[in-house]
Amino acid sequence: MIYSDVDKCRALVVDSNPTSRSTLVSMLRDMGVGHVVPVSQAIDARRALENRVFDIVLCDYHFDRSEMSGQSLLDDLRRAQLLPYSTVFVMVTGEASYSHVAEVAEAALDSYLLKPHTATALEERLLAARHRKLVLRDIFEALETEDFATAARLCAERFERRDEFWLYAARIGAELYLRLGQHDLAKGMYEAVHASKALPWAKLGVARAELEQGQLPQARRTLESLISEQPSYADAYDVMGRVQVEQGDLNAALETFRTAIRTTPASITRLQKQGMLAFYCGCTDEAIEALERCMRIGVSSKMFDCQSLLLLALLYFDRRDTKSFQRVHDTIAQTVEKRPDSRRLQRFLEVSEVFRLLFARRLAECVAQVRAMAPDLRSEDFDFEAASNMLSLLARLRATEVQLDDSETWVGQIAQRFCVSKASTDMLCRAAQGHPAYVTAVREGHAQITTTAERAVSHSVTGSPLAAVQTLMDRGRETLNAKLIELAGMVLNRHAARIGDSAALGPQIQALKTRFCTKGTQVALGQSGGRAAGGISLRA
Q1: Bond before 116 cis per omega within 30 degrees
Q2: Alpha-carbon gap, residue 152 to 178, rounded angstroms
Q3: How far apart are CA 451 and CA 445, in angstroms?
């Protein structure tokens, strides 16, 4: 018997071979498992796991007639947080793919089973996996209540004592420290694990901690070393791509995701990132191919990001492909119908609608639609993604007969708000499609923000920290620029003793930060959320 309530257990068997699938189903039923669902392909398994919770998942590593492997499926499931900790995931593999599965087991698997196998071997694996979950129950219970600080402390204690399953606890603990913003503790734990076991995920964890600390060159060196040692470790490419985007090196990031796709050709999230980077790098054919492929295999998946649809709509407009454009526009509209409360999706449809009207030669309505969108530029939830899409819209309209006298003013507002770094500035320039007037406006906006920040900091150095904080706050309110608002808080904290009104200023700055510094001011490829690249799911 696997569990005390084994008859209530739900199991999913994923195997493209009918004989193997039937054998696994029979073994589970003989063990007393009450409900077993067999599926033959990874896409069916993904759909099942998106809609139901299973206690046990038995998944074959190789699928006939599919680019997706069991490893790719597991990676996508973890990334989308579709596997709760209570689920036992066991990979079933043949001798030929054993080395790959053993590597994955270090990162995310509960266990693996080597073919040919017996019912006894399967039950032993399930019992062992269940035992680990029971031993670490106090940690999982803390995660269920979102008491991450307690969960991290329990992990650290088990790690320090080298108690049973200390290695697994260390990984959870380091992940929690990253989430809690305690990057030094996370890095220290990852480094200790790597020194002890030299595990790829531990070295990747070090790079992730360095990235969160803003140590981009150091993180890039760590990742280059890891990739040279483990060229098939797909998560390393995800983190490397993020580092390169943060550094503004989009062409290198695109090449990184091309490599990742060769390793995991059916990964929805990586195809989306490749397509989005190709879009901004001007590689139109590649962008369409990647995004179309992603749409074909994943449009019904929770992992699919509808930003991909909007970029496809823009690309089809550029090609004047009205049929393909209408197909994508209709898909966006259907998505909004299913989720009418999502402002993000509504913005996608608003942008796409402008081009639908333009195709229909309804120019007055097209202009009215854009003008109705303009006030949204100062909305609290208007993020970097929305800003990039608006710039892409305005740049394309500039090349048509549509006349928008206020367009350069709108571009200036976007630049003043979202030019928080060189990387964000470069991305906005790419979104503007190289249109000279818009690129100049973005560059000037970045220069103005930088000058304001430098002058304010000089005030604090020369003995006027209150003037520095007030200047940064005033300009922050005016531009909604997160860099200026956050800098105001930093100057206030550093010179609080010399600022008599610090107690009153603190809440004002915090209110601005809450409204305008938490809604996506940094460069991002699609919607965030789910498992961080290189991390593990913290869903209980």
Answers
A1: yes
A2: 10
A3: 10
pLDDT surpasses 50 at 539: no
How many angstroms separate the Cα of 509 from the Cα of each of 134, 176, 289, 416?
Answer: 45, 28, 45, 18
pLDDT tens track for 148-193: 999 999 999 999 999 998 988 998 899 899 989 999 999 999 999 8
Give me the sign of the Cα torsion angle 161, 164, 170, 176: negative
Write out the two tokens for 371: 């003008």
CB 37 within 8 Å of CB 23: no
**Helical pair 268-280 and 234-246, crossing angle rounded to 10 deg:** 30
User: How many helices (H) does the chain have, and how many strands (E)?
Assistant: 26, 5
- The helix/strand/coil state of 112 is strand
d(CA 176, CA 186): 8
The answer to whether the predicted template modeling score (pTM) of the entire model surpasses 0.70 is: yes
Q: Answer for the pair 357, 397: CB distance below 8 angstroms, yes or no.
A: no
Closest CA to 107 of 167, 183, 177: 167
Instruction: In whole angstroms, give the CA distance from residue 245 to residue 253.
Output: 6
| Residue with tokens 């593999």, as numbered in its chain | 93
